[in-house]
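forwarding from the other thread:

> can someone predict this with flavin-adenine dinucleotide?

sure thing
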Amino acid sequence: MRFIVIGANAAGMSAAMRIKRRRPECEVVVLEKTFEVSYGACGLPFYVAGLNDDLDLVRIRSAEEFEQSGIVMRLGHAVEQVDFASKTVTGHDDVGNAFFTSYDRLLIASGASARLLNVPGAQLRNIFTLKTPQDAEALRAAIERTRGNVVIVGGGAIGLELAEACLLQKVKSLRVIEATGQLLPGFDEEYALAALDELARYGAHVHLGERVAGFSGGEAVGRVATDKGEYDADVVIVSVGVVPNTAFAAGLDKLPNGAIVTDHAMKTSEQDVFAAGDCASVWHALLKKPVYLPLGTYANKQGRLAGDSVCGKPVSYTRALGSMMLRCMGLEFAKTGLTEREAKAAGMDAKSVMVRAHSHPHYYPDACEIAIKLCYRENDGVLLGAQLMGERETALRIDPIAVAIDRGMTAEELGFADFGYAPPFAGSWDAVAVAANAAK
Ligand SMILES: Cc1cc2nc3c(=O)[nH]c(=O)nc-3n(C[C@H](O)[C@H](O)[C@H](O)COP(=O)(O)OP(=O)(O)OC[C@H]3O[C@@H](n4cnc5c(N)ncnc54)[C@H](O)[C@@H]3O)c2cc1C
């Protein structure tokens, strides 16, 4: 049996390793269009920030290590077409030679690319996106070379991590331009406003409801024009989301953004074809439908389970809640499940409560306030979502709430869960329990 995996990062290599472990006698071939394999993209903003000076630390395993496990790594091989009827994959390698290969089972793990802005001047030098270690290297070099005016387009989670990176790099000025009316789309207004205040506290300028219209300059960017103004820019970072890399997979069922629709076992609409990670949908536990959540957590889980699934083991992954966390300067943010607005848009009778509780008792040093907003079903109190923010000891508190939602618990059950207590860590009623017990 011959397994082909397209894409050699989180999803693809999790799957390839799993297949080789389960079926050592089978041929596992990975086709990867670049020469980069298995890296932690999530660590790149911290390299840009200068918190880590060794880019190799984000490289998790080398192609040679995978080869030693018996996996055939074909790097520099860009897949251009899959013919599902003849079970063949075609493309070109990095020196222009065509390749053609067949599969018994195919796993598509081709991820996503940074979304680009289709505006005049978008090709100018010093306009960056951040996806790969090479992107991070080039971006950090430009920031350190110019230490000038930086404009970040996009105020989502990665945009804010990059804002922190630029502030830590002490750039001359930082501007964040966001087309919607708030930072951190997906969070409620109180959280978005706190992020805005935090950036302002460090001297950054935030422009909401403003759209980039184009870039100008000489060879390199010099100015950013929007529908409301024009600003100096020595470096621009475009962080406006991602686009699934699925053009070569014509004929598969896809979401409107191009992500391949998968079922609970990562199977696609074609026989013997599976997909996982940022190129694919994931099943939302509360919305009960396939959604697009391009997060490393799902790439790893789906990849591992897809590896089992292609080998014929029954698997089911239906538990995505969109849990995520980030830090921007002195504030941590985290979210899981749905906000009240999202739940109501999905037809649920949702209600929410917000409390501000302390991370630990005030008599122990460095206690901080954590703002916790819980969303729950009005009729029975079953938890639907949570948003958290605070200076410290905050983000990881999303995890017990994610588990509670995963298990279908009510706010009352979470409020009386047996959390530990000692003054350096928590109060006798932990902040999460305080919030849960406030839900009526
Ligand atoms: C800056 C940044 C920060 C992030 N931070 C977080 C975080 O804190 N938490 C979190 O959960 N997630 C985070 N993410 C998201 C996370 O990194 C991704 O979800 C994860 O990398 C997806 O892995 P993947 O294997 O599905 O896809 P990718 O990482 O996109 O890998 C796909 C691979 O397929 C290859 N490929 C594409 N097309 C072809 C083709 N036609 N032929 C052959 N090969 C092809 C690509 O070259 C690539 O190597 C972050 C992402 C970025 C960019």
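Residues 2-39+60-113+243-310 form a domain with the FAD/NAD(P)-binding domain fold (CATH 3.50.50.60). thats all i got for now
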